[in-house]
UniProtKB/TrEMBL annotation:
S-adenosyl-L-methionine is among the record's keywords: yes
Quaternary structure, from the entry: Homodimer.
InterPro entries: CmoA, Methyltransf_25, SAM-dependent_MTases_sf
Identification of the protein by name: Carboxy-S-adenosyl-L-methionine synthase
Keywords: Methyltransferase, S-adenosyl-L-methionine, Transferase
Origin organism lineage: Bacteria, Pseudomonadati, Pseudomonadota, Gammaproteobacteria, Cellvibrionales
Species annotation: Sinobacterium caligoides
Highest taxon, organism lineage: Bacteria
Length: 243
């Protein structure tokens, strides 16, 4: 199915309301994220590669903040381990409703369970792979360490966590350059200057980025033994953390 084109911020509306993952966003989210996050498609492809390498027989995989199921599907179609189960969790019922339409029943592939719930209330266990693809940045900063600790506690030894995030840069010049390049990417993807400006206003109090060093420190503190930066494009990164 061809995704609907994102035109949420195409009309002038004064100060936009804070960004929400509601039904309006769910309908265009596939287009929105592909045109807003540089390297997003490559990140999904590599999630499949990592899943093939780290998922073990009889274990569970979690896609936290699964949205429309892109990461869920990348995992599902690349697992070679036997008797595995995938759990996708998102606190937006609109996203989960759309995700159910994207995850077709297939007895030849690992089973998928979708849950509409707050990650702060979720339980984790027997996990060989966990993905958080641009999700942690929407959770209150003071709640991030305890959530990561609960995730790590629910993971098997040798399991992997993929954490993809928009990041803050430590130097003001670097932050300005990377932000300008990100906006240039969005313009190249067809967004107007007004759309870019309005989306930035809508999301600035909702998406709170951390530095790479903060992410690495939190993951180590949570109980992961090794943390690697495996991808970066402008101010977007993905980390691989090994339990």
């Amino acid at each position: 199915m061809t995704p609907k084109t994102d035109q949420i911020y195409a009309a002038a509306s004064g100060r936009p309301a804070d960004f929400r993952f509601d039904s309006k966003v769910a309908q265009v989210f596939a287009d929105m994220i592909a045109r807003s996050v540089p390297g997003y498609g490559l990140t999904l492809d590599m999630i499949g590669v990592i899943a093939k390498h780290y998922v073990t027989d009889g274990s569970q995989c979690y896609d936290l903040g699964c949205s429309l199921g892109a990461s869920t599907l990348a995992i599902r179609h690349n697992i070679v381990a036997k008797d595995t189960h995938i759990i996708g969790i998102d606190n937006s019922s609109a996203m989960i409703d759309q995700c159910r339409q994207n995850i077709a029943d297939n007895p030849e592939l690992p089973t998928v369970e979708l849950r509409a719930e707050d990650l702060l209330d979720s339980q984790f266990g027997n996990a060989s792979l966990v993905t958080m693809n641009f999700t942690l940045q929407f959770i209150a900063a003071e709640q991030r360490p305890s959530l990561l600790k609960r995730i790590a506690d629910g993971m098997n030894e040798g399991g992997a966590m993929i954490l993809s995030e928009k990041i803050a840069l430590t130097g003001s010049m670097e932050q300005e350059v990377m932000t300008d390049l990100h906006h240039g990417f969005k313009a190249a993807m067809g967004y107007s200057e007004m759309e870019i400006a309005q989306k930035r206003q809508a999301i600035e109090n909702v998406l709170i980025p951390d530095t790479v060093d903060t992410h690495k420190e939190r993951l180590h503190d949570a109980g992961f033994s090794h943390v690697y930066l495996w991808f970066q494009c402008f101010n977007f990164v993905s980390l691989l953390a090994i339990k």
